[in-house]
Amino acid sequence: MFPVIDTGYNNLVPVIDTGYNNLVPVIDTGYNNLVPVTDTGYNNLIPVIDTGYNNLVPVVDTGYNNSVQVVDTGYNNSIQVVDTGYNNSVQVIDTGYNNSVPVVDTGYNNSVQVVDTGYNNSIQGVDTGYNNSVQVVDTGYNNSIQVVDTGSNNSVQVVDTGYNNSVPVGDTGYNNSVPVVDTGYNNSVPVVDTGYNNSVPVVDTGYNNSVPVVDTGYNNSVPVVDTGYNNSVPVVDTGYNNSVPVVDTGYNNLVPVVDTGYNNSVQVVDTGYNNSVQVVEKGYNNSVPVADTGYNNSVPVADTGYRH
């Protein structure tokens, strides 16, 4: 009925409570414990709490259906916070920074997202569940691997506000209601969304991306948008029946804007100038013409379709 409390520090063996249904959490306010705080019970009403820092082994809770999350407010933990249960009502939280391994939650149907507000994590935040009501969020920067969400039908997008990520933001789900967003710049690999029927476009506001923004889906209600400049490869949309055109407002693109679909209701638009290769539209039955408002293009605007 009451919590296990250990206010000491540098304990060589962890605080252990094998009971279940404790009304108050296991608490260890010490620091530098060599072994983790462990609670193998289930249905605890309050979370396992470890306010120390530099623990050599993670806080572990193998129970399920805990009403409050596992919390570790320390920093520089050498191993991640782990919760193998499922259907936790609140997320796994790690507010530290420079964790060497990511925060991991293998459950499914969590009502709130996995959150890691630290920066420079060597591996990404991972959530393999599906149908999470809020997105996977990583506000850090310079992560060496991308934010990954393999679920489907997430109600909010995968968000990575960092910059200079070495690998793209990837979302293999489909029918996401909000777009995949990457506001960083100088990403070495493009933003990729292989789903279809996204209600909002794939957006990349960065510049100098070395590979194009790619959307292989079809029937997107809003266009693929790339507001950057000096992209070395074109913006590509292989879908068809897009209701709004593919838009590239940058300038000095080395390769043309390409739209291989057909029956687009609005034209392909390139407002930049000095493109080295022309704007290409291979579809047919476009209701509005291909428009290029730039100047000094080295090759003409080409439209191989018919019945404009």
UniProtKB/TrEMBL annotation:
It comes from the Eukaryota. PANTHER family: GLYCOPROTEIN-RELATED, PROLINE-RICH PROTEIN BSTNI SUBFAMILY 3. This is Bile salt-activated lipase.
